[in-house]
Automatic annotation (TrEMBL):
InterPro entries: Znf_SWIM. The keyword Metal-binding applies. GO terms for molecular function: zinc ion binding. This is SWIM zinc finger. Keywords: Metal-binding, Zinc, Zinc-finger. It comes from the Bacteria. The lineage of its organism: Bacteria, Bacillati, Bacillota, Bacilli, Bacillales. It holds the Pfam family SWIM. Residues 55-91 form the SWIM-type domain.
Length: 477
């Protein structure tokens, strides 16, 4: 069976309330019975409900990296608080007695085993999952509509540039918002998000000078999107296969949601990978009208820094599981990679967790970049592309952290080159450095998030995590 730890259970919970409620069931002694199967593969029990009803939660570890959670309660949350409570009770060392798996649960397990056997047989015979078949006629119509939408968007952007941002009034703001709605009709969700982002910037009345600086940058991004999008869609119409571009992010900009079977068909998958999460952040993106949960992970065999990204639409956020910080090693059977540059987005469906050891900290530090000149060059090359991620993350070796007379922090490498530190994300972390002892700020590795500050013209790095020989110090969870 997989090692059941509190951290691992927390990662399964749909939200923080479910964690609290699950732990509460254990503390209040609501479990009337706790059992495990003879082979200890299945945990099951009986939990007292709020009324006269009792519920039967269970956790089936027949496939350790993909446990199956079930419960007889009517909750729409998955896993529910009763299953979480069952797992917390096990992790806390509660007494589980051997028992016979209930008949209804045994029947469900048998059906699941047959489905899994069929999958294993197909995999052994080399039968790969097929991507969804594309209706080329419908796709051509969609692309034609998208091209029309890009023409409409271009006319608006050129009009805004000709008139100048300083002349922006309520009438033009309303025009932009009307076009936001139109972009949805043209299947251009990416353009819709970026146009809404422009509208939000121009609506900022507190600091108009800074808002106009970033609005000008946003106009440049949208102009680049229009040009690259038009070239790509035109070429795709001429391609008999109408193949997806699996090397750049243009498909996502145009609103394509990648399916795992598509990524697998392009070979964007790795087997038996170990990841450790180095940092986690969550924020509300009003332009996308979604909450965004991002985890930064390092891959053991390559040292690459990946991102897991979950989008939770405002309207559906209550019904979706929040991602959260994860503090253990994730052993992953299949890791799917999305097209992109630095910090490619990844996704996995199954994992087994295990504790982080000092040996893990050693290999993490070994992958940190020791030349700031090379690191900055790599970052700047990415930032040259207007459609790239504007906040790349890297792991750097830090000879020491220093502070000048103005209180500005900087990190230096072994050759004496330095990079200024600053807060580029909503949650500040630089002020936390003053609370760390000197030994935690020299001869360490540091995960940093870069940003080119448009106001000052400087490249700044925000510290996210410090890696020493004995611990991970996460400044931003």
């Amino acid at each position: 069976m997989v090692e059941i730890t509190e951290t691992w259970i927390d990662s399964l919970a749909p939200n923080s309330a479910a964690i609290k409620n699950g732990q509460g069931l254990v503390k209040k002694g609501r479990f009337l019975q706790l059992n495990h199967s003879e082979d200890k593969v299945v945990l099951f029990g009986t939990c007292a409900g709020s009324g006269s009803s009792h519920y039967q939660p269970s956790a089936d570890f027949a496939i350790p990296e993909k446990p199956v959670m079930r419960c007889t309660c009517p909750s729409r949350q998955f896993p529910c608080k009763h299953v979480l409570g069952l797992l917390y009770a096990y992790a806390d060392g509660a007494a589980f007695t051997p028992g016979v798996v209930p008949e209804d649960l045994a029947a469900k397990r048998e059906k699941a085993e047959k489905r899994e056997e069929r999958k294993i047989k197909e995999a052994a015979e080399g039968v790969a999952p097929k991507p969804k078949k594309v209706n080329k006629s419908a796709l051509k119509k969609k692309i034609t509509t998208q091209l029309e939408g890009l023409d409409v968007l271009e006319k608006l952007i050129h009009s805004l540039i000709r008139n100048g941002l300083g002349t922006m009034d309520k009438k033009e703001l309303k025009l932009i918002k009307d076009h936001v709605k139109q972009m949805g009709n043209y299947y251009l969700s990416g353009a819709q998000n970026e146009l809404r982002r422009l509208s939000l910037l121009l609506s900022d009345s507190e600091d108009q000078e800074t808002a106009y600086t970033y609005a000008a940058e946003q106009l440049a991004v949208m102009n680049a999107f229009i040009k690259k999008g038009r070239l790509y869609l035109t070429a795709k119409l001429e391609d008999p296969e109408m193949a997806l571009d699996h090397e750049s992010t243009i498909e996502e900009w145009l609103g394509h949601a990648w399916q795992l079977t598509e990524l697998q068909s392009f070979g964007l998958v790795s087997e038996q990978v170990e990841l450790i999460q180095l940092s986690f952040l969550s924020y509300a993106d009003d332009a996308r009208q979604e909450y965004v949960d991002i985890g930064y992970w390092i891959q053991k065999d390559s040292g690459e820094i990946h991102r897991t990204i979950q989008y939770r639409p405002y309207k559906a956020a209550k019904r979706m599981r929040e991602d959260d910080s994860f503090f253990e090693v994730a052993a992953i059977p299949m890791l799917y990679r999305y097209p992109g540059d630095m910090n490619r987005r990844v996704r996995f469906e199954e994992m087994i967790s295990k504790p982080v050891t000092t040996q893990d900290l050693e290999w993490i530090k070994a992958f940190s970049a020791n030349s700031y000149a090379e690191a900055v060059k790599k970052v700047k090359n990415q930032l040259k592309n207007p459609l790239s991620d504007k906040n790349p993350v890297m792991l750097l070796q830090v000879s020491r952290v220093c502070q000048n007379t103005d209180g500005q922090y900087a990190i230096t490498d072994g050759s004496g080159q330095s990079i200024g530190l600053g807060d580029v994300y909503l949650e500040p972390t630089v002020p936390l450095l003053r609370y760390l002892p000197e030994e935690k700020l020299s001869g360490v590795s540091m995960l940093v998030m870069f940003e080119h500050c448009l106001v000052t013209g400087r490249l700044l790095a925000q510290p996210l995590t410090i890696i020493t020989e004995t611990e991970l110090i996460r400044l931003l969870y």
